[in-house]
Amino acid sequence: MSEQGAPDTTYDVIVVGSGGGLIGAYTAASRGLRTLVIEKTAYVGGTTAYSGAGIWLPGNAAERRAGVEDSPEAARPYLDAIVGDDAPAALREAYLQAGPRVIDELEQNPLFQWFTWRGVPDYFEGRPGSLPQGRTIFPPDFPRAELGSLEPLLRRPLWTERWGVHPGMQLIGGQALIGRALLAYMETGNGSLRVNTALESLLVEDGRVTGVVALSDGERVTFRARRGVILAAGGYERNGELRRRYEPAVGDEWTQGCEGNTGDALNAGLAVGAATDLLEEAWYAPGLVVPGTRPVFYTSVWSGIWVNDAGERFMNERLPYDRAGHELLRQGQLSTHWVFDQRQIDNERAFATLPVAPEVPGWFDVEKFIEAGVLKRADSLEELAELIGVPAAALIKSVEQFNGYARAGKDEQFGRGESPWDLTVAQLAGAHTDGSNPVLGVIDKGPYYAATIVLSDLGTKGGLRTDDHARVLRPDGSVIDGLYASGNTMAPMSGRIYAGAGVPVGSSMAFSYLAAVELAEQG
């Protein structure tokens, strides 16, 4: 079987999933607990390996080194204000208190030195406790060669999987975080790993979860856990049946989530009586439809507008991606038209840097996009309207109104360009406009284009209900002994919102850590 570490069937702790749950596995193994990680696919890292690895854990050491004044106490009113009653306050408090501890403990290991702060603004400007300069930190890059024999196990970057480009000699973002965590975990001497090993069910004895039944390289195997099982296997975004059940308006064909995220851990938890919450929610993100593959997570336009089938502009196109996705969902705009002009095409940086553009030179090939039918081009707005099936008069009116805002430097309709998020990302685009607002580019230089924006997601976010120790709960609030959950397998501490870049990864790290600490303290 595909295994790293000593073969056995009994461990102290079993972690299901190898994304952010690796932090919990490392935490347990570094405390002397014999730990097993099982991973459904052939690669370690899950959706975290695709990500930019932003980590939102207020008050951590990396913020302090950067001179950012922050703390769990400073972030509490922000989370309270934007989450409200959609998630228990106790979960938010556990998250806030665990965050600095996680980073402090990881940085004691040279493999995790040093996380760095970057200026990514919080996503809800103006709320109590919101930081315009942001709280998000990132792991440092990591030489691929440092992984040694573990390197073939690391999930390739998303763009390598989609376009076959070389993954690079330096691990960046989520690749770097997972690579460091995997190596640190294996170097404890207490960690084992099995890939190609899918969770089938949980083993329950006398009301306590004592292990898992898994299909490993085609063979059914039972692994026992003396202390407990941590479910950290992502969401159910790649399971069409579950999405139809819980999110009937949203399918699975546009998700950015990892192929293995089909809800196995969710189903296993339900089978032993676990409660759930917010299963209808996801980490939404508008996606640009591209030829031959899933949409690209690409929301940071400085030019152009989004119009509906009536040819009317209907929102601030620069909202933080999850807020933009929720607005698309609220308005029933699961697919919409992004209308722009030749300026957007000519500004190479606009397609090369924002916000998680493919690491593929020339990926936005206009002629190939047009040939595939996912991009329309016309010499006039009237002709473009006909190509995309919207009323020409309405489209022209929408563009002319927006051009007036752009020249004046103020979006009177939706306030685009007024938030720290809008302005920060616009600067990366190298935007050049006729007005004073860097995200309001005039649309008057033909030819004109229309691309398709769809409601995509970075994964589902509803899951098993837990307490503030990451212990899975039953509907009556009682604890299922021996069972823990984190990441997108658990119902999120952030409720229906996305507080800032790095909340999903930060949550997975924090609650995996809390679960492992509790399991270690049982002895």
Short descriptors:
31% helix, 6-stranded antiparallel sheet, 523 residues, alpha+beta
What topology does this entry show?
Elements: E1 3-4, E2 10-16, H1 21-30, E3 35-38, H2 61-65, H3 72-83, H4 89-107, E4 116-117, E5 137-138, E6 142-143, H5 158-163, E7 170-171, H6 173-187, E8 191-194, E9 197-205, E10 208-216, E11 219-231, H7 240-246, H8 264-271, E12 276-277, E13 282-288, E14 296-297, E15 305-307, H9 321-330, E16 335-341, H10 342-346, H11 348-352, H12 366-372, E17 375-378, H13 381-388, H14 392-408, H15 420-429, E18 448-460, E19 463-464, E20 471-473, E21 479-485, H16 503-521
Parallel strand pairs: 2-3, 2-11, 3-8, 11-21
Antiparallel strand pairs: 1-8, 4-5, 6-7, 9-10, 10-11, 12-19, 13-14, 13-18, 15-16, 16-18, 17-18, 20-21
Helix pairs in contact: 1-6, 1-16, 3-4, 4-16, 13-14
Describe the structure.
The chain has 523 residues and is an alpha+beta fold. Helices cover 31% and strands 20% of the residues. It has helices at residues 21-30, 61-65, 72-83, 89-107, 158-163, 173-187, 240-246, 264-271, 321-330, 342-346, 348-352, 366-372, 381-388, 392-408, 420-429, 503-521; strands spanning 3-4, 10-16, 35-38, 116-117, 137-138, 142-143, 170-171, 191-194, 197-205, 208-216, 219-231, 276-277, 282-288, 296-297, 305-307, 335-341, 375-378, 448-460, 463-464, 471-473, 479-485. The radius of gyration is 23 Å and the shape is globular.
Flag low-confidence runs.
Answer: none
The percent range for strand residues is 15-25%
What is the typical, i.e. mean, pLDDT? 93
The secondary structure category is alpha+beta
**Tally of strands:** 21
